[in-house]
Please model this.
Amino acid sequence: MRHHNSVLHGLTKQIPWAAFDRLVDEHGADWRTRKLSTKSQLIALIYGQLAGATSLREIEAGLSSHHTRLYHLGAASPSRSTLADANAKRPCDVFASLFALMIGQVERGVRKKIGDAVRLIDSTGLPLSSLSAGWASFSAGVCGAKLHVVYDPEADRPLYFQVTAANVNDITPAEAMPIEKGATYVFDLGYYDFTWWADLDAAGCRIVTRFKKNTPLAIVAEMPVAVGSPVLSDKIGHLPARVKHGRKNPFRDPVRELRVMTEAGKELRILTNDLDAPADEIAGLYKRRWQVELFFRFVKQTLKIRHFLGTSENAVRIQVAVALIAFLLVRLAHAATKTDDSPLTFTRLVRANLMHRRPLDHLRQPPPTIVRDPRQLILALNPI
Model:
């Protein structure tokens, strides 16, 4: 009978371990480490995310019960206290850099014309307990963090992420995000900053976002709209010359305002710096924002990112990075197996078979029965 390693082993084979070892050395993550290596920590946390573990003790118990199957993973079963210490003290940049490295490798294989690239920018709140008040206090008795992402809707994966305290304005991490020249950026009102828009425009990027209700537009031209289209009006104009505190607005190029009626009967003012594309195309780009919301729901509900295993800023950042690595591993495996199952169903099958020995493309098949004693074979063939 052909030997198979565990499903977890099949998933983690996609991690570039040689590059990961270089990252560990670069950040000194294993310096003076005696009990738990960074690799074992990563595998334990990936197991926790995919298994839906809600505590470090649950990870400890789960891996301990399967300790014989950790050999081929090159990992060890950690104790709760050792794993807690590693999450609190080991540099989170190792895991964030690994995610960025894996994304870079995937992108090189499927890169399209940059003019066709669409990037969705958004954030979601991550509730935390009062034990995180030292760094993530939002208001009296309320603590939380934010996950900010740049998302590729075509590839169905995040390309960049950052974790901040919940009281940090969305535009602050957005200004630190890398800008891809010529790409299309779609975002909502949380990123309403004319200076940042001017930077995107100067890089040749197409912007699709929403107007605030009180932002006037000096109309210079009005375009015709198709009869029966959800687009109610199509106008070209200029943003206000002055912004808050009388400062000069750096975004002086003409912009376009589309008034669009949604299926729910709500009227939206959509802004873009693309003066030539069909109005329906611009409206369709803004509608694609729902894909990043689906991504947030997936990582929160399916990968259980709503429940954190540590309270320090470092521990939260590590868990978010590992959750996104786990998301990427599952999506890459799903694409490689060419299964008819949806990504959600495939992820559930991975969870159910995580430590079973079977290939990733046979998750629906029952595990083979291994008979080691001839008497058991006789009983199996001739049950009493």
Notes: The two ends are 27 Å apart (CA to CA). Residues 108 and 274 are 28 Å apart (CA to CA).
